[in-house]
From TrEMBL:
<protein>
    <submittedName>
        <fullName>THSD4 protein</fullName>
    </submittedName>
</protein>
<dbReference type="InterPro" id="IPR013273">
    <property type="entry name" value="ADAMTS/ADAMTS-like"/>
</dbReference>
<dbReference type="InterPro" id="IPR036383">
    <property type="entry name" value="TSP1_rpt_sf"/>
</dbReference>
<dbReference type="GO" id="GO:0031012">
    <property type="term" value="C:extracellular matrix"/>
</dbReference>
<dbReference type="InterPro" id="IPR010909">
    <property type="entry name" value="PLAC"/>
</dbReference>
<feature type="region of interest" description="Disordered">
    <location>
        <begin position="282"/>
        <end position="305"/>
    </location>
</feature>
<dbReference type="GO" id="GO:0004222">
    <property type="term" value="F:metalloendopeptidase activity"/>
</dbReference>
<keyword id="KW-0272">Extracellular matrix</keyword>
<keyword id="KW-0677">Repeat</keyword>
<dbReference type="GO" id="GO:0006508">
    <property type="term" value="P:proteolysis"/>
</dbReference>
<feature type="domain" description="PLAC">
    <location>
        <begin position="656"/>
        <end position="693"/>
    </location>
</feature>
<keyword id="KW-1015">Disulfide bond</keyword>
<keyword id="KW-0964">Secreted</keyword>
<keyword id="KW-0732">Signal</keyword>
<dbReference type="Pfam" id="PF08686">
    <property type="entry name" value="PLAC"/>
</dbReference>
<dbReference type="InterPro" id="IPR050439">
    <property type="entry name" value="ADAMTS_ADAMTS-like"/>
</dbReference>
<dbReference type="InterPro" id="IPR010294">
    <property type="entry name" value="ADAMTS_spacer1"/>
</dbReference>
Length: 703
């Protein structure tokens, strides 16, 4: 493994060509990684500041990573995978428990969803993360105005504590590093999250700052199984120390071996007096516990001792950092530094932490993320939180705002506009009223139009401001006036008192002969008295009483007997109806009305068929009227009469009219010149004009 501070091995290989001319010029080279397949193990380098790359070598040095972030390496120009055990070609991978080549049985996944309904605002505990947890994932199931918070069991706030909302980023706590994410994109629906690899070294509590209904919090972490040996415990265990209730060393180990163990370094397994050659970044393997080191350490004496030669750099430049003393092994007399093996390691002072740079760091404005725009289109507002913060003891604290008065405070509000709002446009004028008289409707075309002029869905415009696209129209009362007939010529009685009658109707354009209120209440009389003189042996019609009405409601009919009689003194003689034939016979039937039946469908007569043959159609008007002849909506739609039907479906048979013939041979010119509208040409070219009229209804007319 290369040290973290060292340059990338591909950078080193490409930079080796900086002092070699290419096409007569010198360039500085950097790795070009945008290649695929077998090219990954070629040394492709790009000229810095230019837009071309060159294959400087067919293969890179063995051990060069194939990809910047991958684990495979190049060997003899081929990509070879490396297992987690660092063996070339091994297929071992780290399981979810963090064990190389494991089978996922050495740990347990703990997961769940916090869905409790909360009522009080503020901090509410969600879940407890135990010590030793790994692969921690705390995620809000959808975006909300709530915030996640993290605190140690000792009470130390890690993220979003004390009502101060931290910015997204990385925060140390519980022995691991937590990544705090808070998506702020307008289109994003993802919620906040805490992510950490672990393991934790203390119990942590996750809270939610409740401000609106809980969308649900998903939590998941991994804990070791009951009988799992922790890798950390193995690395720091002293030989012979109990492990999970058992000693790590066999009971038969001799006391000599125990003494040997005590003189063995607990991390490397090497003898404390030897100087092992350690490869960079790797620990040497442990020596067998029953094997004596090949080289005995030099005898320790009092000629050398430990001396403080300085201190480490302070971890911070302000706000209380820490530093440690540095001890080297020196000659007691000359004070020259010598290898540490000449000093007794057991007497080496343990470096103790010392505070440094205690003065506070300058306060600064901590600028939060902008909120979503208050409007999805048009001019809106967005807000952000501005806090005065100060760093002390590796913690960022919220302080009084006057401490930041030396800095200009950023704006907390700002105008925003995601896009220009769409608007309503009236595309057409009002249509004609749907009825020639009375109350009807008229319409117009109203569309939602974007700022680019495109017609978009109505939802993109403000529905409260939508202009009406349909409205009622009143064309005035349909009834014009009362229409009267002349009085009847005959008196109802040949002698004595009688009456003369006339018809009175209120005419409309839709439902003929219906009495509507539009004609007024002063209906003219339909009868007038008359007298043809005294009766003396004259014959006359005699009418009996009316029968019951034929219906229980609405309009019905009644019947009565009408006979021809001659009146004599005190008697009536029944005669043959013929004897009264010269007299107007009284009606033997009349309409009757007992009570209202409710709304009914009324219709006009059918119109003339649109075609005389080969299928035309005819129409009629249908209205729902109440008992008082007013428009109603109470009729049964299932019983509504048809308003349109087919008619004259028979085939057309041309009729030959002997009186309709063409008098000239060039009548086709008359038709082409559209002269058939004139009476002269219509007569002179009767047959041709008639044929074209049958093909084009409405073609002919008078002028």
């Amino acid at each position: 493994m290369c040290p973290e501070s060292s340059r990338n091995i591909r950078e080193v290989q490409c930079a080796s060509y900086n002092n070699k001319p290419f096409m007569g010029r010198f360039y500085e080279w950097e790795p070009f990684a945008e290649v695929k397949g077998s090219q990954k193990c070629e040394l492709n380098c790009r000229a810095i500041g230019y837009r071309f790359y060159v294959r400087q070598a067919e293969t890179v040095i063995d051990g060069t990573p194939c990809d910047p972030n991958g684990t495979a390496i190049c060997v003899a120009g081929q990509c070879k995978s490396i297992g987690c055990d660092d063996y070339l070609g091994s297929d071992k991978v780290i399981d979810k428990c963090g064990i190389c080549g494991g089978d996922n049985t050495a740990c347990k996944v703990v997961s769940g969803v916090f869905k409790h309904t909360l009522t009080n605002l503020g901090y509410h505990k969600i879940v407890e993360i135990p010590e030793g947890a790994t692969k921690i994932n705390i995620t809000e199931m959808s975006k909300s105005n709530n915030y996640l918070a993290l605190r140690s069991r000792s009470g130390r706030s890690i993220i979003n504590g004390n009502w101060a909302i931290d910015r997204p980023g990385r925060y140390e706590g519980g022995g691991t590093m937590f990544t705090y994410r808070r998506p702020n994109e307008i289109s994003s629906t993802a919620g906040e999250s805490f992510l950490a690899d672990g393991p934790t070294n203390e119990v942590l509590d996750v809270y939610m700052i409740h401000q609106q209904p809980n969308p649900g919090i998903h939590y998941e972490y991994i804990i070791p199984g009951d009988n799992v040996i922790s890798p950390q415990l193995l690395a720091h265990r002293r030989p012979g120390e109990p492990l999970n209730g058992q000693l790590g060393m066999p009971e038969s180990t001799s006391h000599e071996d125990e003494d040997l163990h005590r003189e063995t370094d607990i991390l490397t397994g090497q003898s404390a007096g030897t100087f092992p050659v350690i490869q960079p970044g790797r620990f040497p393997s442990h020596q067998p516990e029953n094997q004596v080191p090949a080289m005995q350490p030099p005898r320790q004496n009092r000629e050398h001792n430990w001396k403080q030669v300085g201190k480490t750099e302070c971890t911070t430049t302000c706000g209380k950092g820490s530093q440690y003393p540095i001890f080297h092994c020196v000659n007691r007399i000359t004070h020259e530094e010598v290898p540490e093996g000449y000093c007794d390691s057991s007497t080496k002072p343990i470096p103790e932490e010392e505070a440094c740079n205690l003065f506070p760091c300058p306060a600064f404005w901590d600028i939060g993320e902008w909120s979503e725009c208050s409007k999805t289109c048009g001019l809106g507002m967005q807000h952000r939180q501005i806090l005065c913060r100060q760093i002390y003891a590796n913690r960022t604290l919220t302080v009084q705002q006057y401490r930041c008065q030396h800095l200009e405070k950023p704006d907390t509000t700002s105008t925003c506009q995601l896009k220009i709002c769409s608007e309503w446009q009236i595309r057409t004028e009002w249509t004609s009223c749907s009825v020639p008289c009375g109350v009807g409707q008229r319409t117009r075309d109203v569309k939602c139009v974007s700022n680019l002029g495109d017609i978009v869905d109505d939802e993109e415009c403000n529905m409260k401001l939508r202009p009406n696209d349909i409205e009622n129209c009143d064309m005035g009362p349909c009834a014009k006036s009362w229409f009267l007939t002349e009085w009847s010529d005959r008196c109802s009685a040949e002698c004595g008192d009688g009456i003369r009658t006339r018809s009175v109707v209120c005419m409309t354009n839709h439902v003929s002969s219906l009495p509507l209120e539009g004609c007024g209440n002063n209906r003219p009389s339909e009868t007038t008295p008359c007298n043809n003189g005294p009766c003396a042996g004259k014959v006359e019609w005699f009418a009996g009483g009316w029968t019951q009405c034929s219906t229980e409601c609405g309009s019905g009919t009644q019947q009565r007997e009408v006979i021809c009689v001659r009146k004599t003194e005190g008697n009536f003689d029944v005669l043959n109806p013929y004897e009264c034939s010269y007299l107007e016979k009284p009606p033997s039937q009349q309409s009757c009305y007992l009570k209202p039946c409710g709304s009914k469908w009324f219709h006009t007569e059918w119109s003339t068929c649109s075609k005389s043959c080969e299928g035309g159609f005819r129409v009629r008007e249908v209205r729902c009227l109440s008992d008082d002849m007013a428009a109603s909506t109470q009729c049964d739609p299932q019983l509504k009469p048809e308003e349109k039907e087919l008619c004259n479906t028979q085939d057309c048979v041309p009729e030959i009219d002997e009186n309709c013939k063409d008098k000239y041979y060039n009548c086709n010119v008359v038709v082409q010149a559209r002269l058939c509208v004139y009476t002269y040409y219509k007569t002179a070219c009767c047959a041709s004009c008639t044929r074209v009229a049958n093909r084009q209804p409405g073609f002919l007319g008078r002028r």
